[in-house]
Amino acid sequence: MLVIPAIDLRKGRCVRLYQGDPEKETVYGDNPVEIARQWEQLGAKMLHLVDLDGAFTGLSQNAKVICSIGEEVRIPLQLGGGIRSREAVEKAISFGISRIIIGTIVIEEPELAKELVSDFGESILVGIDARDGKVAVKGWTESSAVETLELASRIEQWGVKEIVYTDISKDGTMQGPSLEGLEEIIKKTSLQVIVSGGISSREDLASLKPFGNRVKGVIIGKALYSNQLTLPDAMAVFD
Fold it and tell me: Which one is catalytic: 51, 129, 167, 204?
């Protein structure tokens, strides 16, 4: 199981938001490229990049930073946030991104999303961001009428193999992962899952071990940046 450090980008800086709220921002650095290098040096096997400006507005202010990270690190990168067109997917690939996460267009433009899954295969992951059992879109600023499990089942039929699952109520809280929602997806689909949100301790990580054959990775943000967990300690849980 991969431990994947998160680099959330807003106006060119590395930040963390509490439950996705742009008014509750903590800045962790003005040089995300250097932060990416540090995670690589500490042993990360993959990084999770989020373009928050893209997620909120559909227009990235972080393309230059994302491109620089792609040039500077050798480990695989996955990117989400505001990727709502074929052009955006192709641009991400040109920056060196190997895994692209789509979310809003899966709800709002399903035919385009299906085409992207068909054309780009396993390079496309779907982000399922859950709030009270429903899927949130547009940087979590809006809730759709689509239930989490309904969407998971739908995209599985499209040929999606892997999702990033986030319980928004847990994100940035360091209160542990949402095991109930995760378990439901695992029981009722064959999707591989990357878990995001709430991780604060080795115990939280250990709670994911029973799902080890289906949980491919876990994304950690605030716990790493606040030194509640170190990356080597987190990785050691699964070694």
Answer: 129
pLDDT of 21 reads 81
- 238 lies in some domain: no
**Paired tokens of 185:** 């997806």
pTM: predicted TM-score of the whole model, two decimal places: 0.93
Of 8, 51, 53, 171, the active-site residue reads: 8
Domain count along the chain: 1
* Known catalytic membership, residue 129: yes
Per-residue pLDDT tens digits for 45-66: 999 999 999 888 877 789 999 9
- Is-catalytic flag, 8? yes
Residue 31 sits in a domain whose CATH number is: 3.20.20.70
Residue type at 16 in one-letter notation: R
Domain assignment of residue 119, given as a range:
2-230
Is residue 182 one of the residues assigned to a domain? yes
Cβ contact 5:224 at 8 Å = yes
The answer as to whether 236 is a domain residue is: no
Is residue 132 situated within a structural domain?
yes
Quick one: which of 48, 46, 53 has its CA closest to 12? 53
For 184-198, the pLDDT digits (tens) are 999 999 999 999 988
